[in-house]
Amino acid sequence: MQMKNNVTEFILLGLTQDPFRKKMVFVIFLIFYLGTLVGNLLIITTIKTSRALGSPMYFFLFHLSLSDTCFSTCIAPRMIVDALLKKVTISFNECIVQIFSFHFFGCLEIFILVLVAVDRYVAICKPLRYTNIMSHQVCGVLVAVAWVGSCVHSSAQILLTLSLPFCGPNVIDHYLCDLQPLLKLACTDTYVTNLLLVSNSGAICTVSFVMLMLSYAIILHSLRNHSAEGRKKALSTCISHIIVVILFFVPCMFIYTRPATTFPMDKMITVFYTIGTPLLNPLIYTLRNAEVKNAMRMLWSKNLISDDKR
Question: Judging by DSSP bridges, how do beta strands 9-12 and 88-91 pair with one another?
Fold first, then answer.
């Protein structure tokens, strides 16, 4: 006999219940979120308006910044506002929407990071065939597949969530709605659901991480044939990319590749890939790039000139 869902809302405990620490959470994460918005929107505007940034790499970085902006917006604004409230509740429908958007843009970010690594592999290891392999048509198809794949993944998360009956309690010891903490509240055996979660989210995180590490390992190995200056530049770029990949994927794998148990550290670990990575990506992938800096200067100069003419 199927159990009925009697829960219409959930209570979110957030990162902390201490009033002083909640104020710290509000200030710190407001600064992080504003930094994420400014950095990513600046990159989106620059790539969209600059003719010099028309290569496939910047096409992927445009979508990376877009996914970072949306991914952070799914979580951070509500988290910041909730830090000012004594009791935080989220309706069942809002919880479903947050799970869908959180997984959609999170999965999209994973796929785009893989595409960025593929682009760098082709550019460094197959430079003579780069323009043929990474044509505009191919890049467009790859990004479209990433968006569709993300939609399929997040839809699977929603189906798994809707299959769970909730009859109380309704307190989520987290700052967001996600399937993993919800499994603890379901009034049924969640073994199969958790197995499906691991085979879905866990597999995407693990396989993508292995692919990224292998691609960067191949890139680093191929650098021995490059000049000292080119090797140094590529090595600096690859190492910074690897650091961001580790900060994003290791926490994801810790959360989504284990049995349906929760730990006190889960909330802080989740912060790394929900708040930290969208803030770091524009700094590591784009703002350190000389071409992007030059394009930003030109864009800034054009705006100043147009303002002076007025």
Answer: antiparallel
Determine the distance from the C-alpha atom of residue 157 to the mean position of all C-alpha atoms in its chain, rounded to a whole number.
16
Which amino acid appears at position 120 of this protein? R
* Domains of the chain, each with CATH number or no CATH: 9-305 (1.20.1070.10)
Query: φ and ψ at 289, to 5 degrees?
Result: -85, 130
Condensed to tens digits (0 to 9), the pLDDT of residues 92-108 reads 999 999 999 999 999 99
Q: What is the pLDDT of residues 138-158, one digit of tens each?
A: 999 999 999 999 999 999 999
CA dist., res. 256 & res. 44, Å (int)? 30
Quote the tokens at residue 245.
């990949």
Alpha helices in the chain, H assignment, sequence order: 19-49, 56-82, 92-125, 130-133, 136-162, 179-183, 191-197, 203-222, 228-256, 266-271, 277-281, 290-309
The amino acid occupying position 207 is V
End-to-end Cα distance, the chain: 72
Q: Which residues pair with 9 in a beta bridge?
A: 91
Q: Which residues of 206-226 are buried (b: 16+ CB within 10 A; e: fewer)?
A: bebbeebeebbeebbeebeee
**The residue to which tokens 């379901």 are assigned:** 186
* Residue 190 main-chain phi, psi, to 5 deg: -105, 15
Of the CA atoms within 13 Å of residue 109, those in its CB half-sphere come to 29
Written as six digits, the tokens of 284 are: 């590591």
pLDDT digits (tens, 9 = 90+) for 256-291: 887 767 777 888 888 888 888 888 888 887 766 777
Residue 303 half-sphere exposure, CB side, CA atoms within 13 Å? Answer: 10
Q: Is 211 helix (H, G, I), strand (E, B) or coil?
A: helix
| pLDDT tens digits, 194-223 | 888 888 888 999 999 999 999 888 888 887
